[in-house]
C-alpha cells in the first residue's frame, strides 16, 4: 500500500501542477471556457460571467499550489480534502459536458492538449480513484522537509510564482502559444486539407408531415414517400468526424464579401484584433490610431478585426475617430487568434510574424 500511495501521490501532484501551469499560462483562454459553462445554454448562471477571469485565475493557482503541497507532503488533510472536492466538481463538469454534449472541450489542458468530453471525464474518474487511494494510505504521506519553515517557504514561493506568472500573462501574452495562430503560422496553409485526409460522414434525415404527424425518413426511403407527404426539414447527423485543419473558421468579411484571399497576399499587413469592442480596453483602443499611423508610414495595410455589429463599430468610430477599416470575423476565432483586447498581429503574405498585447505596442517590429 505504501508503494501504491507514493505512486498515486506523485501522479496526482504532478498532473495537477502541469494542468494548472498550462492553464495559468493562458488564464484568459480558460476564462472563455468558464464563460461558456456559465452561459444560459449550459448552467444558466450569467451573473458569474463577469467573474469568469477572476475565477479562472483563482482556480488554476489553487490547482498548482495543491499539487505542490501534495508532493512535499505538507498540510496533508487540507490538501487531500481540497483535491477531492476539486476533482469531484471537475468530474461532474466533464460528465455533464460529455453526456449532454454542451461543451465540446473542457479546457483541462488549455490548447496544449485537446481532449474529447469523454476523455476528460475518464481522466477525472482516474484522478478521483487515485485521490481515494491517497485517503486510504494517507499515513504514508509524510512531509519531505522536517522543518515547517521550509514547507511554508516552498508553499509561499509556489504561490508567489503563480501570482507573478498570472499577472505577467494577463498584462502581456501567454509565455508559450499553443494555439493554431502562433507566430510562424501561415494562415492559408493552416486551412489546407491534405490529399487523402478522411472526410466526415453524415446521416441525412428528412422530416415530412404525413397525415399531420411529423415523420423521419432516410435518404433511401424517399423513393417510397407516402402520398401527400409534405417536407418539413432536413437534418445532417455527424457519424464520423473527418480531418479538420488547424485553421478552419478564419475570414475577413466586410459588407457581405470575404476579403481574406486579397489581404493574405499583402506583404505588410497589420491587424488590430478585438473580438468585442464593448469589452476592449479604452486605453488600448485610444492607442491604435498612433500605431496605425506609424505602420502606414512604413507601407503597411492596416485593418481591424471584430465580431461587434456595425452599429457598435460606428459608435466607436465616432468616439475614437479610427483611421483604419473594420472587418468582421467570428468571435471565437478572434479569441483564438489573440487573448488581449485589443491586440496587434503583424503578417507577411499571410504568415504571422509578430503578436502583441496592446500594452506592448512599443515593441512592434515594422520593417
Automatic annotation (TrEMBL):
Residue intervals passing through the bilayer: 7-24, 51-73, 80-100, 120-137, 149-170
How is this protein positioned relative to the membrane? Multi-pass membrane protein
Question: What InterPro entries does the record point to?
Answer: Methylamine_util_MauE
Using the record's annotation, list all stretches that form the Methylamine utilisation protein MauE domain: 1-135
Please state where this protein is localized. Membrane
Cellular component, GO annotation? membrane
What are the GO BP annotations of this UniProt entry? Answer: methylamine metabolic process
Entry keywords, A to Z? Membrane, Transmembrane, Transmembrane helix
Protein name per the record: DoxX family membrane protein
Its source organism is Paenimyroides tangerinum
Amino acid at each position: 500500500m505504501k508503494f501504491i500511495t507514493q505512486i498515486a501521490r506523485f501522479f496526482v501532484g504532478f498532473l495537477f501542477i502541469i494542468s494548472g501551469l498550462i492553464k495559468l499560462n493562458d488564464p484568459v483562454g480558460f476564462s472563455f471556457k468558464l464563460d461558456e459553462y456559465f452561459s444560459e445554454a449550459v448552467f444558466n448562471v450569467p451573473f458569474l460571467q463577469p467573474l469568469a477571469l477572476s475565477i479562472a485565475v483563482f482556480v488554476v493557482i489553487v490547482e498548482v499550489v495543491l499539487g505542490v503541497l501534495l508532493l512535499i507532503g505538507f498540510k496533508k488533510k487540507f490538501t487531500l480534502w481540497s483535491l477531492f472536492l476539486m476533482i469531484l466538481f471537475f468530474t461532474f463538469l466533464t460528465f455533464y459536458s460529455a453526456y449532454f454534449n454542451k461543451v465540446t472541450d473542457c479546457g483541462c489542458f488549455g490548447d496544449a492538449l485537446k481532449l474529447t468530453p469523454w476523455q476528460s471525464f475518464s481522466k477525472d474518474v482516474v484522478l478521483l480513484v487515485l485521490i481515494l487511494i491517497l485517503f486510504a494510505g494517507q499515513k504514508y504521506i509524510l512531509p519531505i522537509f522536517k522543518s515547517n519553515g521550509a514547507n511554508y517557504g516552498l508553499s509561499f514561493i509556489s504561490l508567489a510564482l503563480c501570482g507573478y506568472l498570472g499577472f505577467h500573462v494577463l498584462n502581456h501574452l501567454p509565455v508559450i502559444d499553443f494555439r493554431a495562430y502562433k507566430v510562424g503560422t501561415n494562415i492559408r496553409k493552416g486551412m489546407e486539407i491534405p490529399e487523402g485526409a478522411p472526410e466526415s460522414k453524415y446521416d441525412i434525415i428528412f422530416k415530412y408531415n404525413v397525415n399531420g404527424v411529423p415523420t423521419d425518413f432516410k435518404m433511401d426511403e424517399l423513393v417510397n414517400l407516402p402520398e401527400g407527404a409534405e417536407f418539413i426539414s432536413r437534418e445532417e447527423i455527424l457519424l464520423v468526424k473527418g480531418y479538420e485543419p488547424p485553421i478552419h473558421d478564419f475570414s475577413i468579411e466586410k459588407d457581405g464579401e470575404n476579403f481574406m484571399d486579397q489581404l493574405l497576399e499583402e506583404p505588410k499587413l497589420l491587424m488590430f484584433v478585438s473580438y468585442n469592442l464593448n469589452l476592449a480596453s479604452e486605453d488600448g483602443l485610444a492607442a491604435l490610431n498612433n500605431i496605425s499611423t506609424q505602420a502606414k508610414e512604413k507601407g503597411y495595410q492596416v485593418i481591424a478585426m471584430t465580431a461587434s455589429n456595425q452599429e457598435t463599430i460606428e459608435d466607436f468610430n465616432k468616439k475614437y475617430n479610427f483611421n483604419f477599416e473594420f472587418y468582421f470575423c467570428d468571435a471565437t476565432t478572434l479569441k483564438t487568434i489573440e487573448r488581449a483586447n485589443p491586440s496587434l498581429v503583424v503578417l507577411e503574405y499571410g504568415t504571422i510574424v509578430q503578436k502583441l498585447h496592446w500594452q506592448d505596442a512599443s515593441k512592434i517590429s515594422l520593417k
